Amino acid sequence: MWDWNYVLDVLPQLLSALKMTVWITLCSFVVSLIVGLLLALAARSRFKPLAYVTKGIIEFIRNTPLLVQVFFLYYSLPLLMGVSIPAFYAGVIGLGLHYSTYLSEVYRSGIEAVPKGQWEAATALNYTKGQTWRIVVLPQAIPPIIPVLGNYLIVMFKETPILSAITLVEMMLTAKNVVSQSFRAFEPYTLVGILFLAISYIASLLVQRLEKRMNLLRGK
């Protein structure tokens, strides 16, 4: 049966772990935003070898499980290269790189939505490549895709329990540790589910509100 006294005992630990889960998500999202944009630009490069290699890397990362990638970073890399990565950084890098391949596709769709006339106007104004991207293309390509990026942020948040496999103390591993001490699984795992649901739902409402606002701005 549900024990409220037990819930009040374990809730502070889970809320503390929630802070770590949110922090991991935000750091991973920043990595995915930066690397995703670089991958999108490299995949569009006129230098064909770079474009082909980039597309190959994207397909490889997309078609291998996130858990395997995280295991490789945390367990295999130290054996192969003697480079030991703390669990936090392995989780951030693994989650960030994995979703950067998906965000690169989001960036690509935004870039391709920029009218061809804008590129021609930049050429007519004698802009360099860097100026064309910085002043003309990206300011028009990124705002419409912000809601989609927000949705991926929510997806990444819900993927963080995978990182418990590399001993990263987020909510799921904290719940497992609590269960191993008390042998009561119902309350801790239910609380984890409720916390994930609550944060994801609030975030989805914010993304929906942002999307409506972006649509209104584009309408103007």
Question: Can you describe this structure?
Answer:
Residues 18-207 form the ABC transmembrane type-1 domain. The chain crosses the membrane at residues 20-43, 64-89, 189-207. This is Ectoine/hydroxyectoine ABC transporter permease subunit EhuD. InterPro entries: AA_ABC_transptr_permease_3TM, ArtM/GltK/GlnP/TcyL/YhdX-like, Ectoine_EhuD, MetI-like, MetI-like_sf. Pfam families: BPD_transp_1. There is one protein chain. It contains nine helices and no strands. The model has no long low-confidence stretch (mean pLDDT 90). 26% of the residues are buried. The radius of gyration is 21 Å and the shape is flat. The chain has 220 residues and is mainly α. Helix content is 81%, strand content 0%. It has one domain: MetI-like (MetI-like fold), CATH 1.10.3720.10. The protein has helices spanning 4-43, 48-62, 66-81, 87-112, 116-124, 129-141, 146-159, 171-182, 186-219.
Quick rundown:
With 220 residues, this protein is mostly helical. The chain contains nine helices and no strands.
Descriptive labels:
ArtM/GltK/GlnP/TcyL/YhdX-like; amino-acid transport; mainly alpha; membrane; 220 residues; AA_ABC_transptr_permease_3TM; 9 helices; Ectoine/hydroxyectoine ABC transporter permease subunit EhuD
Q: Given the helix and strand composition, which structural class is it?
A: mainly alpha
How many distinct beta strands? 0
Tally the helices: 9
CATH superfamily: MetI-like
Residues in helices, as a percent range: over 70%
* CATH topology group: MetI-like fold
What CATH first level would be assigned? Mainly Alpha
Percent of residues in beta strands: under 5%
Q: Helix and strand string, N-terminal first?
A: HHHHHHHHH
Instruction: Give the name of the CATH architecture.
Output: Orthogonal Bundle
Distance linking N and C termini: 56 Å
Family: Belongs to the binding-protein-dependent transport system permease family.
Subcellular location: Cell membrane
Pfam families: BPD_transp_1 (PF00528)
Protein name: Ectoine/hydroxyectoine ABC transporter permease subunit EhuD
